[in-house]
Structure formats: C-alpha cells, structure tokens
C-alpha cells in the first residue's frame, strides 16, 4: 500500500530544508513551519535562488523546538552563527544583508507561509521512485542530490515512478486523496523553475539539464496521465490544496495513502 515515507519543511523560503517525522496542517492548507519566513529585498521582492544564485552558497540548519537557525557561508572560514528566529530577526537580517551585499529583511507569515503557488499552498508531493528515476537520467546525480534540487514536502513510498501523476485531473477539477486521516486535493503538476538545473550546493549549472529532463519526462509519462495539464514537460511533483476542515490534523511518516 502506498505510504508516506518522508516529510520535509523549509522554514526559511529558498534555504535548506528540515526532515521531520510529522507536520501539522494549518487552516490555509499549508504545513506549519514550511516557508514560514522569507528573505525580501528593499522593494519587497523575494531573495531566492531563482533570481540570486548566491543563495546556493548559504547553509542553514534549524532547531524548531528551541526556535534557532544556524547560518554559515560554505565558502568562508568564518564560523557558523546562531540566531533565535523570533527574538533576533533584525540580527538575522543584518547577517544576511552582509552575505548578499544588499539590504534585506526577514518577513513572516504564520497562516500560510510563502508558497510558490499561493492558490495551492498545500504540500508538494512526489514518489521516491520518481526522484530516483530523474536521478537516473543524469549520471552525476544521486537520489539525495535530486531531492535537494526539487525541494518537495511529501515523499511517497511503495509506489512506482510517477505514481503521483494520477493525483491531478483536467483543469478546474481535483483528485481527492487521503494521507492518514488528512484529506487532500491534487491540483496540477508543478512547473519547475531554473533552480533544479543547478547544483544545490554550488549553483553550478548542469549543461542541458532542462533539455534532457523534458525529453525523458515526455517519454516516461504514464499513459493514463491527464496530458492536457502538460503544455510543456518541465514539470515534476504535484501541487495540492487541503480543505480548511483538515486544520490541526497531523501528517505522519508511515501514514497510508489512498485515492478517494
């Protein structure tokens, strides 16, 4: 039976993630703590790896129980620094401003975080087999490196590659499924940005990554998939919405997954 094998959240948008054993659903459908914070510039625009590749050189560790973030520049000899996420936000912004060479701020959204698709703020989903299949398209990539490139929240086990592609339908319709006791709506295959084309730790671009990906994705797309949702094939993982009725419920590693 399909089951939930891995849960990851990303406390600060665009920075390193945190693997957890469970996650609480918020009223917005987002996961508590996922993209709760974001880095913005003086104009209020996100400072992310899409527009600023130097983000790839920034390492972050989190202790969400104590509410600490540990930051360091991986190419610097300077020691790792620790900040309290709530009490020292101005100090975090000052450290990041020096790192980026421009003034930035840290903003917070406790209700929904800062998802890439505000219309579908639920967790992104993928199967482990899909990530392994993608890794196999590129001789230099491992499963873990592929995980870092695609930054998905929920990873499914005991299913074949691209099983998650059955979790969306025609535009305007949803596929209802359940993880444990949490009801979820599958919306659409996620359109990818330039980030997966780069080494997640160095920012180095993998030559022809998108071209290879698109060719392989087209060839391996399951026959039963709703192809009308693919205006192009640079898509992987599924965007979701979670009804407000599920707020407060917990997604746990090991939960069974069922299409309703």
UniProtKB/TrEMBL annotation:
Tell me the domain of life. Answer: Bacteria
Any one Pfam family match given in the protein's UniProt record, by short name: MOSC_N
Annotated ranges, domain MOSC: 89-260
GO MF terms here are:
catalytic activity; molybdenum ion binding; pyridoxal phosphate binding
Name the chain's protein.
MOSC N-terminal beta barrel domain-containing protein
The top of its lineage is: Bacteria, Bacillati, Cyanobacteriota, Cyanophyceae, Pseudanabaenales
């Amino acid at each position: 039976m399909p089951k939930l094998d891995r849960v990851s959240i990303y406390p600060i948008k665009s920075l390193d993630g945190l693997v957890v054993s469970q996650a609480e659903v918020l009223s917005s459908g987002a996961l508590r703590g996922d993209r709760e914070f974001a880095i913005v510039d003086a104009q209020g625009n996100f400072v992310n790896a899409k527009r600023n590749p130097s983000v790839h050189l920034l390492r972050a560790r989190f202790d969400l129980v104590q509410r600490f973030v540990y930051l360091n520049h991986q190419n610097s000899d300077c020691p790792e620094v620790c900040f309290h996420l709530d009490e020292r936000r101005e100090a975090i912004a000052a450290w990041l401003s020096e790192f980026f060479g421009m003034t930035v701020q840290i903003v917070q959204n406790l209700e929904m975080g800062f998802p890439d698709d505000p219309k579908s703020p639920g967790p992104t989903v993928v199967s482990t087999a899909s990530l392994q299949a993608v890794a196999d398209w590129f001789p230099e990539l491992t499963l873990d490196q592929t995980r870092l490139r695609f930054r998905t929240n929920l990873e499914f086990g005991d299913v074949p590659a691209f099983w998650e592609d059955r979790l969306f339908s025609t535009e305007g319709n949803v596929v209802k499924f359940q993880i444990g006791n949490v009801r979820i709506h599958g919306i659409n295959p996620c359109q990818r940005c330039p980030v997966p084309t780069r080494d997640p730790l160095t920012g180095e671009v993998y030559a022809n990554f998108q071209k290879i990906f698109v060719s392989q994705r087209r060839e391996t797309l399951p026959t039963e998939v709703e192809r009308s949702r693919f205006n192009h094939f640079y898509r992987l993982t599924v965007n979701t919405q979670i009804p407000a009725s599920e707020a407060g419920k917990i997604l746990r590693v090991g939960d069974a997954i069922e299409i309703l």
